[in-house]
Task: inverse folding
């Protein structure tokens, strides 16, 4: 028998049971599918996290872009503009916009008191501090336009300031000769800041300079204020309300206490007051179950109603805003300041909107629920 015939006559056999190879293949396939499924789940989780991160960053970009657009619209020459600060217990350095500090009539018209390190409003031509015995660390040569006043507080991050010498020029050039600079310096005292860079000179907060104008109404602060305007006539003790076809406006709110505080504060300068509060006046009507607020000039004219609807209180989208007439430009500024101090947010600084008219002085805010509000004076 040949070798080939011998090999062909031997039967192959294995100690492994029948079907072993098929079971092994199925097990390998199962483990492979499990690995693929786990990898897919891992990638899907990473993708979800990335999408959430992208969404958050996109929203932040839109918010910052909106704030930048609002800043550019309100001031073409101010590169670092913030909402006007309001007088409040938590911000004692900001003066009351309705009162002007007493004039120091006995002080020279070109000198005035300043913070400890700047004894006068910086003027390029003013003489140095005449007191030679003063502590050198607490005095500065104000005839030097680069005086940095190093002991003054530094500007905070994002704080809007202007060089003191520029403020001096604005005040002196746009006020009558009899205007007392000592009073202006007393007003600006809380806002003085040391130089941002060596040799740049001290600085002062722009919102205080703006507030000084609104009180004195003697010089213009470009670009927010373009021309001086006459003082408004005295309000009538019993204002006449013209007949209008519009009876009232109703808005949904999230929180009765929050909106009560906010609207009471912002509407007071506009001669609108809280004239109805369901929590203080129990009623048997169906509306008594919904906390309600009513505002108007008097009980006979309730022009704004607020209903607490909780999570169902959704503000209207772009294109809607509620505008109130203000008796004066000072009232517009107070409206904006009160909104900033009571939970609102800035949507447009007080100023003239020339696109609406040379006398269109307005401010725009958002209430705590996001409703767009405006106060405007066209006198």
Result:
């Amino acid at each position: 028998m040949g070798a080939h015939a011998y090999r062909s006559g031997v039967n192959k056999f294995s100690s492994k049971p029948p079907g072993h190879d098929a079971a092994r293949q199925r097990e390998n396939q199962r483990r492979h599918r499990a690995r693929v499924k786990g990898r897919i789940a891992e990638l899907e989780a990473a993708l979800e996290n990335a999408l959430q991160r992208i969404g958050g960053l996109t929203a932040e970009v839109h918010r910052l872009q909106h704030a930048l657009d609002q800043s550019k619209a309100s001031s073409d020459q101010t590169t670092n503009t913030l909402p006007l600060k309001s007088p409040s217990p938590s911000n004692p350095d900001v003066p009351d916009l309705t009162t002007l500090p007493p004039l120091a009539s006995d002080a020279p018209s070109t000198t005035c008191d300043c913070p400890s390190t700047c004894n006068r409003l910086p003027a390029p031509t003013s003489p140095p501090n005449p007191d030679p015995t003063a502590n050198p660390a607490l005095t500065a040569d104000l005839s030097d336009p680069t005086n940095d006043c190093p002991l003054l507080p530094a500007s905070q991050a994002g704080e809007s300031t202007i060089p003191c010498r520029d403020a001096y020029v604005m005040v002196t050039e746009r006020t009558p000769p009899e205007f007392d600079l000592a009073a202006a310096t007393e007003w600006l005292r809380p806002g003085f800041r040391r130089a941002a860079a060596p040799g740049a000179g001290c600085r002062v907060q722009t919102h205080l300079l703006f507030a000084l104008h609104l009180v004195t109404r003697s010089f213009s602060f470009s670009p927010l204020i373009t021309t001086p305007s006459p003082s408004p006539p005295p309000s009538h003790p019993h204002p006449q309300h013209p007949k209008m076809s519009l009876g009232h406006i109703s808005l949904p709110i999230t929180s009765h206490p929050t909106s009560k505080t906010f609207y009471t504060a912002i509407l007071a300068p506009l001669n609108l007051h809280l004239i109805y509060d369901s929590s203080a006046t129990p009623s048997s009507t169906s509306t008594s179950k919904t906390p309600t607020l009513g505002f108007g000039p008097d009980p006979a004219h309730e022009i704004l109603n607020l209903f607490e609807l909780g999570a169902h209180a959704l503000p209207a989208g772009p294109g809607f805003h509620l505008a109130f007439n203000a008796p004066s430009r000072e009232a517009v500024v107070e409206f904006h300041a009160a909104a900033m101090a009571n939970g609102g947010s800035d949507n447009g600084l007080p100023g003239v909107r020339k696109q609406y008219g040379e006398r269109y002085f307005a401010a725009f805010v958002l209430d705590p629920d996001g409703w767009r509000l405006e106060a405007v004076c066209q006198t």
